[in-house]
Amino acid sequence: MVAGATAVPGAGEAALPGATGTRLLLLGPALGIVVLVGILPLGIILVYSFLTPGTFGGVVWKFSAEAYAQFLFDRDFLDDSLTFNAAYLGIFGRSLVQAGVATAACLLVGFPTAYFMATRPPATRNAWVFLITVPFWTNLLIRTVCMLLILRDEGLINNALVGAGLISTPIVMLYTDFAIGLGLMYSYLPFMVLPLYASLEKLDFRLVEAAYDLYAGRWRALTRIIIPLARPGIVAGCLLVFIPSLGAFLAPDLLGGGKHLMIGNLIQLQFASSRNWPFGSAAAMILLAAVLLALMLYVRTAAPRQRARP
Amino acid sequence: MGAGTRALDLKRLPGFGATAWFCLALLYAPIAVLVVFSFNASRSVTVWSEFSLSWYGKAIANTGIQQAAANSLKVAVVAMLAATVVATAAALATARGQRFRGDATAYLVINLPLIVPEIVTAVATLSFFALIGLSLGLGNVMLAHTVFCIPFAYLPIRARLEGMDRALEEAAADLYATPWHVFRRIILPLLAPGIVAGAMLAFIVSLDDYIITAMVAGAGQTTLPVYIYSQIRQGVTPEINAVSTILLMVSILFVSLSFVIGRKQR
Amino acid sequence: MAETAAVEVRGATKVFGTGGDAVRALDAVSLTIRENEFFTLLGPSGCGKTTLLRLIAGFEQPTAGDILLGGEPVGHLPPFKRPVNTVFQSYALFPHMTVARNVAFGLEMRGLRRAEVAARVEEMLALVKLTDLAGRRPAQLSGGQQQRVALARALANRPKVLLLDEPLSALDLKLRKEMQIELKKLQLETGITFVFVTHDQEEALTMSDRLAVMDHGHVLQVGTPTEIYEHPTERFVADFIGETNFLEAEVLSVIGGMATVRLAAGGEVGAVPRAGAGAGMTVTVAVRPERTALTPRIAAAAGDGAVLRGHIENVVYFGTDTIYHLLLADGAPFIVRMQNREGARRAFRVGDEVGVAVPRDALQVLRD
Fold first, then answer.
1. Confidence bin at A114 (pLDDT 50/70/90)
2. Contact yes or no for C60 and A2 at CB 8 A
3. ipTM, 2 decimals?
4. Cβ separation of B106 and A31 shorter than 8 Å?
5. What confidence category does residue A9 fall into, taking pLDDT thresholds of 50, 70 and 90?
6. Pick the CATH number of B63-263 from 1.10.3720.10, 3.90.380.10, 2.40.160.60, 3.40.1170.60
7. Using the beta-carbon criterion (under 8 Å), do A5 and C88 form an inter-chain contact?
8. Which contacts qualify for A175-179: CB closer than 8 Å, 24 or more apart?
9. Nearest chain C CA: its distance from B265 CA (Å)
C-alpha cells in the first residue's frame, strides 16, 4: 500500500497533539507497571542474593556472599572450612546440556518442517501455519501432562509396544533425562518452526535455481545456499528454544520426577521447601545472567550484519 | 520411464515432507491422547473402554475445580483489560509522532517480561509482594499477570499501528478533524482488530500461566493450572483429563479467533 | 492595486533531521500564487515540491519563513485549522467508510447540519459523476473512481485553495489524459485556486496558468508555460523542459532589450538577454530544436539570425517530425527538429554537410 507522501522524513508531526506531554501520559502506565512490578522486583532479588536466609523463609538483612559460595562449596558447619561440591555445578551443567540438546533436536526436526511449509502453495501454507501456531499458545502445563501420559510405564508408547508384542516389560522412559529432553523439545518445537518458517518464506527460490544451474546438487544447494540464507531464522529459533529451555520448570519437574533437577527446579525449591531465599535469588540471578549473555551474543552477531546493509 | 511427464519439483528436498508430517504428528499426538481419553468411560487413561461424558460431569461438579476456574477467569479478564488498555496507550505513544530519544528503551522495557525467564519473574514478584506486604488477595495475582500480559498485547497492536497508512490520518486532519477526532474516527476503528488480537493473546497467556501464579498466589487463590498441577502430583485422573481438555479447547478457540480476525482485516 | 494572493510563501526553509544527517528540503523559497489560478510546482523527485505542498497544507511546519493564506500567516496552524484541502497521491480514502461518508467527512468535522451535509455530498458526487457509487467502499472502486472520490471529498469543503499531490501518477495513460482535461475544467468552473504538484512536464505545460520549476529545494523560475518553455532563464529549466541545444557564446553588447552574442560555433547573432549578462561575459545560450531549420551549406544568414555549419550524424523519422542529430563545426552536438510538411524529407541525409538557420529571437542567454 502506497503511504502517500511519507517518503519525507519526520512526517506526521501534526498528527500527534501536544507531543511530549501527551506521549508521557500514554506511555506512563505501561512503563510504570513494568518498571514497578517487573524490573524493581529483579533488583530486589539481586539484593536478596547477598543477604542471609531467614529461619522460616524470607531474608535477614545482613550482608553475606554465602549464597554464591554455596554453588561451588560446602561449608562444613563445624569448622567453617569449604570443600568443593560439584552438585550445583552438575545442575547447571545438566540445564545447559538439556537446553542445548533440545535446541539441536528442535532444529533437526524444525528446519525440514519449516522448509516444507514454505514450499507449499499459499492456501495449504496458511493451514500449516495455523496448525503449528495452535500448540504454541496452548497451556504448557497441559502439554507436559500429555507427554507424561505418553511416556509412562503404562503410557501410550509402552502399551503399544507391549501390545504389539515387541517387548515384554515396559521400557522405563519417565523420570529420566531422556524424558526431560523430549519434554523440552516437545514444549518448544513451535518456537523453532515459526521463526524458521518466517525466514524461509522470504527466501527467493530463484537463487536456488541459480545454484542448480551452476551444477550444485540438492545437498549442496541446501548447505551452501538455503541454510546460510535462512540464518536469521535459525538463530532466532535457536534462541527462542534455548532460553526458555534453560530456565524450564515444568518439564524437569513433572517428567524428571524431582530427581534430575534443572536450574528452574533449584530456584523453585529454595522458595518453597528449602527456604533459602538468598540461594534461590542467587541461582535466579545466574540464570538471568546466562540468558542476557545469550541475548547479547545474538545481538552482536545479528545486528552488525543488519547495520552493514545500505 | 521414471520422471515422465511430471515436472521436476526443484523445491522438493527428500525427507523434508516426511519430517514435516512427523513434526505435526509429534505436536498433536499427545494432545490427541489426552482429549480422547477424557471421553473414556473407565478410570484408565490409557486403555479405552467406551465413550462417556461422565468425567466432564464430575469435573464441572467438582467444587475445587469450580473455584479454581472462577479465579482463573477473574484474573484473566482483569489482566486482559488492564494490559490491553495500557498497551494500546503505549503503542500509540511509541508508533506515532516524531521518533524520540527514549524510543528504543521504552520498547525494550515494555517487552522485558518476555525476555526474563518465568521462574525468575515468579520468585522476584513473590519477593516484591512479600517485601511491601501487598495482600490484595486475588488482586496480587491479577497484578502479577498484568505485567507479563502487557507485551503480549502490545506487540500485535503496535504492528497493526505501524502497518496503517499515515496518509489516512493526514487526510483526516486535512479535512478538519482535530487529533481527538482523528483517533476516534480513523485510528481506533482501523486499529480495532489489532486491539482485539492483543486482548485475546493476553487472555490466553494469563489463563495458561502456572509458575508465576503458583509462587504468588496464596490460599484460596488457586487458578485452574495450579489446581491441575496439585492434582497431577497425586496421579493423573480422568477428571483432570476432562478439565485439561476444556482448558485446551478454550485456548484453541481463542487462537483460532485471533487468526481469523487477523486475516480478515488484511 | 495590490490583490491579496491566495497563497504566499515567504522565505520558507525546511530542514529535516539534525547535524550531519540534516536534509535541506527547501531553501528560502518565496512564491506567490494568485486567486483562481491553476498553479503547478514542477520538478524532478527530491526537488522539494511535495515538501512545499505539505508546508502549505500544514503537515509540516517551516524551519524558517512563513506561509500566508489570503494574507493571513498560517505557518504555525495545524492542518485542521487551515482553509485548504488536499488530494493525496495515494488518495488516502478511509477504507472503513463508504464513498458518501468519505465525502461527508470534512463537513461533519466542521459541524454542518445533517441535511446540508447530505445535500453537499449529493452535489459533489454529481460533479464527479459518481452518484451511483455512493454506498460502495473504496476497495470496491477502480483507481480512476477512487481518484474522483478523493477529489470530491476535498472539494466538498469549498476550500480557498485545493492542493493536489501528483494525483494522476497512479493512473494509466488514457485515464490520465482524460483526468487532466476534467481537472482543468473543474478549476475553471469552480474558480478555486489549484496548486498542483507533478514531475511530468507535459502535464504542467498543458494544464497550468503559471508554473514554478524547482530543483534541490529552490524555485528556479516562475512563469506561464510559454515563458518557461520559450524563455528559460536557467540551464536546469531549459534542460528539464523539452529538448534544448546549448551553445557557448560571448556577449558582445546589450542594447535595448536585445543582446548580441558571438557564438563559439561561428557567427554573430541576436539573443534574448537575461539580467546580469553584460558585454564581454562568456555565457551559455539555449535554442530549441524546432526553432531551427536545415539549409544547404552555402545559404547565407537571414536578418539578424545566424547560420551554423555542421554535418548530419543521425536522422530519426517520427512520422510528424524528423529529428536531425548534427555535429557542428566546432565539435558541439546539435539537434534540429523539422515538421514533415511535404512528407518524409529526402533532402537531407546522414553525412551531409549542412547549414543550420537560427533566427535571432530563438536564442536565450542562460544563468549557468
1. very high
2. no
3. 0.84
4. yes
5. very low
6. 1.10.3720.10
7. yes
8. A175/A255, A175/A256, A175/A257, A175/A259, A175/A260, A176/A256, A176/A260, A177/A94, A177/A98, A177/A256, A177/A260, A179/A147, A179/A151, A179/A255, A179/A256
9. 10
